[in-house]
Design a protein that fits this description.
13 strands; 5-stranded antiparallel beta sheet; 4-stranded antiparallel beta sheet; alpha+beta; Alpha-Beta Plaits; 298 residues
Length: 298
């Protein structure tokens, strides 16, 4: 069993957590359970949004939540100009940047398929000019692929709301890679594969080097151009291998992709409810085709 306090208070872990969480709304999964048996996610303390701006904040949060047994640290895809009250996290104008994210979820035994999908996404982004602002994380059972929120210029954020921008970029890439993703899933019989656009106003993702909420593994970052070299044992909390330069970025290198995506997909904030997908969700199509294939071969 991992010593949670000892893990988070090592220099490399605490510094990575701070680098990811600074300016974002933080959430902490604890081992304590609610009345329905679900794992509790803490996002406020004494009515104020949780935040981490320095190493001391990591220690303070662990101490405050000690009775609940804190486990996993997350932060929002959104970066905020102010994080003091509930109104701050509920205010769309308070969001200054947003991190486009592809959530590639899969059964652990299909980890090579997961990496293949992540590699396809990174290659596509590279072809669109997003070369030095991509973050790839192994979450424990799957991958998160992010574009650094500061890869988009201030001028563009002034014209397109950060949530609109992030939603459009993620959806555009999924649409462009739709057939390729389905082909990889079907050729591998990976019916558990999910590639999802989870952009929303409160969305959280795991901080680098945070512990998984259930598994004794850490969320390690992977060199985007060496994804296929990754092995799951690199996420061992007692000897992890981590790409520590994950937060590099080039401001503006995502602008062309963002404009193309927004002009194709449109907004997240209001029109999204009326928007119709060109294709059914990836997981539904994969399951339908696999079911048909299996029935034909009985």
């Amino acid at each position: 069993m991992v010593d949670v306090f000892k893990h988070y208070l090592t220099d490399i872990v605490s510094s990575n957590v701070v680098r990811f969480c600074r300016g974002r709304w933080v959430g902490v999964h604890v081992e304590g359970r609610d009345s329905g048996g679900g794992q509790i996610l803490v996002r406020y303390f004494r009515g104020k949004p949780l935040r981490i701006d320095g190493v001391n904040d990591v220690l303070n949060i662990l101490k405050r939540l000690e009775a609940l047994k804190p486990r996993t640290i997350y932060a929002t895809i959104n970066v905020y100009s102010r994080l003091e009250d509930f109104e701050d996290v509920a205010s769309l104008p308070n969001i200054t940047a947003c991190m486009p994210t592809w959530d590639v979820d899969n059964a652990l035994e299909n980890w090579r398929v997961t990496l293949a999908i992540a590699d396809e996404i990174v290659r596509f982004l590279d072809g669109e000019g997003v070369v030095k602002s991509v973050i790839v994380k192994w979450s424990g059972r799957g991958c998160h692929i992010h574009i650094h929120p500061l890869a988009f210029s201030r001028d563009l954020y002034g014209r397109i709301h950060p949530l609109d921008l992030a939603y459009a970029v993620v959806e555009y890439v999924i649409l462009k890679l739709y057939s390729r993703i389905v082909d990889i899933a079907l050729s591998s019989n990976a019916d558990s594969l999910r590639v999802e656009n989870k952009i929303d106003v409160q969305r959280l993702f795991t901080a680098p080097l945070s512990l998984h909420r259930c598994l004794d593994v850490v969320c390690v970052c992977i060199d985007p151009y060496r994804i296929l070299d990754f092995m799951p044992d690199m996420a061992n909390p007692y000897g992890f291998k981590h790409f520590n330069d994950w937060d590099r970025y080039v401001e503006g290198e995502g602008d062309d992709l963002a404009l193309k995506s927004f002009n194709t997909v449109g907004s997240y904030i209001k029109p999204m409810k009326a928007k119709r997908r060109k294709h059914p969700p990836l997981d539904k199509q994969i399951l339908d085709v696999l079911s048909k294939f299996n029935s034909e071969n009985i």
